[in-house]
Design brief:
The complex is a heterodimer of chains A (112) and B (113). Chain A is built from no helices and twelve strands. Chain A has 112 residues and is an all-beta fold. In chain A, the strands form three sheets. In chain A, strands 2, 5, 6, 10, 11 and 12 form a six-stranded mixed β-sheet that branches. In chain A, strands 3-9-8-7 form a four-stranded antiparallel β-sheet, with no helix packed on it. In chain A, strands 1-4 form a two-stranded antiparallel ribbon. In chain B, a hairpin with a 5-residue loop joins strand 7 and strand 8. The chains are: A mainly beta (112), B mainly beta (113).
Chain lengths: 112, 113
């Protein structure tokens, strides 16, 4: 079945540091890929998405590129802020029975 | 435009009781999904409703059930509550079952004591 593997956290960075959170997936066909963010005490918010190979999703300075050859969708940001502290979830969707399949989440803490 | 709304925000129940959680999808969305986020277990798919029908359920016992109403809102019912049911229950909606983006609500915190 479909699955998502993302790097385990927690990740702690200083403000303005470069961020990479790795995400790889296993799926048949061509899933859509997503990054969701969950701020403390809140629900999930869609951060960005990509629906086909080589697509780049971007939002709020975050980027991720759909790499079919490496089955990856790594999240990057050039300069993190304290307000980026949250849990980040990589997910895939294939319009099938499971809908969104999530990775376990990576907790990011950014210190001033 | 209103997002996905859930109620109640917090709910405390005792073991053996029943809990009912409610969800209103984004206007125009016909699919509603329920996920459980228990501490240390990540996000687990519970149920998917579309056009009033249950389309699929995750690996949860039958005491987890729900329904979708004609206006596409949904209820999640958990019977015979166990301590392990304590979690954040997230509802989400999308336009249809075609890989469209799924939007989440803020969640309902259920605590079983």
């Amino acid at each position: 079945g479909n699955s998502v593997t993302q790097m385990e956290g927690p990740v702690t960075l200083s403000e303005e540091a470069f961020l990479t959170i790795n995400c790889t997936y296993t799926a048949t066909g061509y899933p859509s890929l997503f990054w969701y963010v969950q701020y403390p005490g809140e629900g999930l918010q869609l951060l960005l998405k990509a629906t086909k190979a080589d697509d780049k999703g971007s939002n709020k300075g975050f980027e991720a590129t759909y790499r079919k050859e490496t089955t990856s969708f790594h999240l990057e940001k050039g300069s993190v802020q304290v307000s980026d502290s949250a849990v980040y979830f990589c997910a895939l969707s294939q319009g099938g029975s499971e809908k969104l399949v999530f990775g376990k989440g990576t907790k990011l803490t950014v210190n001033p | 435009e209103a997002g996905v709304t859930q109620s109640p925000t917090h709910l405390i129940k005792t073991r053996g009781q029943q809990a009912t959680l409610r969800c209103s999808p984004i206007s125009g969305h016909t699919s509603v999904y329920w996920y459980q986020q228990a501490l240390g277990l990540g996000l687990q798919f519970l149920l998917w409703y579309d056009e009033g029908e249950e389309r699929n359920r995750g690996n949860f016992p039958p005491r987890f059930s729900g329904r979708q109403f004609p206006n596409y809102s949904s209820e999640l019912n958990v019977n015979a509550l166990e301590l392990e049911d304590s979690a954040l229950y997230l509802c989400a909606s999308s336009l249809e079952d075609r890989g469209n983006t799924i939007y989440f609500g803020e969640g309902s915190w259920l605590t079983v004591v």
